[in-house]
Specification:
By secondary structure, the first copy, chain A, is α/β, with parallel strands linked by helices. The first copy, chain A, contains eleven helices and 13 strands. The N and C termini of chain A lie far apart (53 Å).
Chain lengths: 311, 311
């Protein structure tokens, strides 16, 4: 199957304690596609300026991404510059220039409108709703958002959530949205607004899925060196939805596996600047790391023979 | 089998955003025993003052704890008072009175000296070493410590670590000890000092085990209400070692299960003040939650049939 992604296509300048990268490919739609194309076909909708190095996107095209929804407009591409602190747990934005992204009105090409699996990258909730108007009968809609929209466009976001299947956000964003510091209660509140599933990304601490009567937890993949955390969340979404799109009608077991695929692609994303790591790896590398996750989390137990020396 | 624990036996006064408890049972040996007695027999070594409500420890005795190593000395019991912030992620110490604990010199009773499974609760590393001198041939020694000793008794701690099998600490403590903000590298450094296994407790984010050529991750149990996080780490250790003690010669599979048992008993600890929750539950409740952990983390995967639409 195919996944439709709508999001930013940016140029990023990133400083870490160890290295820096200047004007490299970034943006939610790019990180999502770098991961998702390892698992599924991807349709991309976004906007870039005249300065965008379009040839660098050929890599995604070769991997099966359909970029016919990427518009090249007059003006500059969305540019973001940031710097990470010593332990990669703090991030400072040094510069944000919206450029052509300021006037972005996502137009879904006719050939994308039958998409069943949709990722609404982190853009204004009003625009995310516009996208959903244009898609005929999506079966799984996954939506990201951020503090800026939660605080500034809360009403539009709540309206959008009524039509979203899975909200996928950071722990701090979930807590802010629900106004509750407890993640279990916050996720329950969010599900009451519409999504049947909430996926919480916790960076190095892994990811959690909360549904009505079940939950699932994936650890963070243990890396002894992080190059650049930028885009890890979108790469998680790409692995998650790229895997789901191959299942047609996802079951609970599929969602569990999707959490692991997301964790795997998220972990690859931080091993390089930009989407460079995805240029090096294949689906086999993803599968190998999925197997490692199983090793790191599986345990056997005979539930009728253990314990009970005292009771 | 039996577990030997040496640690504090205290009175705690705890304030949370929702409630408070005055002079209730606390201390590492008490939380450890509350958890471990659900799974194994426990031998306790510690000191209390004349003011200690000894009758309240009867609960542990009835559960199979041997308290003949608990000395009642002249003076006051170790007292700690603290207050938790809104999200339970910050803790302020309001008062610490060492009392008889200031002169604590652990004396291991003759009948405890053949212990095979030993938990060295968070006390001065010199005292932890003294304990090991008195135990004849332990097979698994688990050791806890804290920032205070890492910063003030670093040399004694490193000396101790040469004889410890498992260091069990918080993530911040591991990073401080190794002088490295990356947990994978920090754990490797610690293992180079002696312990073959490092267990990192991460509170709501779960726990990680790092060994030479494998690792294991347990999520935090999702609770929609926390009553009091005090003692969760020691209760984790109690479940971990209480389970291991029943295995005689623990295998890798046993260590994986021990991580889950620790996570389970740690999660029960925070559901009440003091060790009150352990008075209510039985081994069956522990097993039930172990099964829930399996539900929350297990996934099936056919490693030869999935993915690869593009490669």
């Amino acid at each position: 199957m195919t996944v439709l992604v709508v999001g930013s296509i940016a140029l990023d300048s990133v400083e870490t304690p160890h290295a820096r990268a200047e004007r490299v490919l970034g943006g939610s739609a790019v990180f999502f596609s770098g991961a998702a194309t390892l698992l599924s076909n991807v349709q991309v909708v976004g906007v870039v300026g005249q300065d965008y190095p379009m040839a660098e996107l050929d890599f995604l095209r070769e991997r099966g991404a359909d970029l016919s929804g990427v518009e090249q407009a007059d003006g500059s591409s969305f540019f973001w510059a940031g710097r990470y602190g010593d332990d990669f747990n703090t991030r400072e934005t040094l510069d944000t220039r919206l450029g052509v992204f300021a006037d972005f009105k996502p137009r879904i090409p006719e050939q994308f409108r039958d998409a069943k699996f949709v990722f609404l990258g982190n853009i204004a909730p009003e625009l995310q709703s516009d996208v959903l108007q244009q898609v005929r009968a999506p079966s799984v809609v996954v939506c990201d958002t951020m503090n800026y929209w939660i605080e500034g466009s809360g009403e539009a976001l709540l309206h959008l959530l009524e039509r979203v299947d899975i909200l996928m956000v950071n722990d701090s964003e979930a807590k802010l949205l629900a106004g509750d510091p407890n993640l279990v209660r916050a996720s329950r509140w969010i599900r009451e607004q519409g999504p049947s599933i909430v996926v919480i990304k916790k960076g190095e601490h892994g990811a959690a899925l909360f549904a009505e009567d079940w939950s699932f937890f994936a650890p963070g993949y243990p890396l002894d060196a992080i190059v650049d955390p930028t885009g890890a969340g979108d790469a998680f979404a790409g692995g998650f939805l790229g895997y789901l799109a191959e299942t047609i009608n996802p079951t609970r077991a599929d969602y569990r596996r999707a959490m692991i695929y997301g964790s795997v692609t998220g972990s690859f994303a931080v091993e390089s600047f930009s989407i460079d790591r995805f240029k090096e790896i294949t689906t086999d590398d993803v599968l190998e790391r999925v197997a490692e996750f199983k090793e790191m989390t599986a345990f056997e137990h005979e539930f009728d023979t253990v314990g009970s020396t005292n009771d």
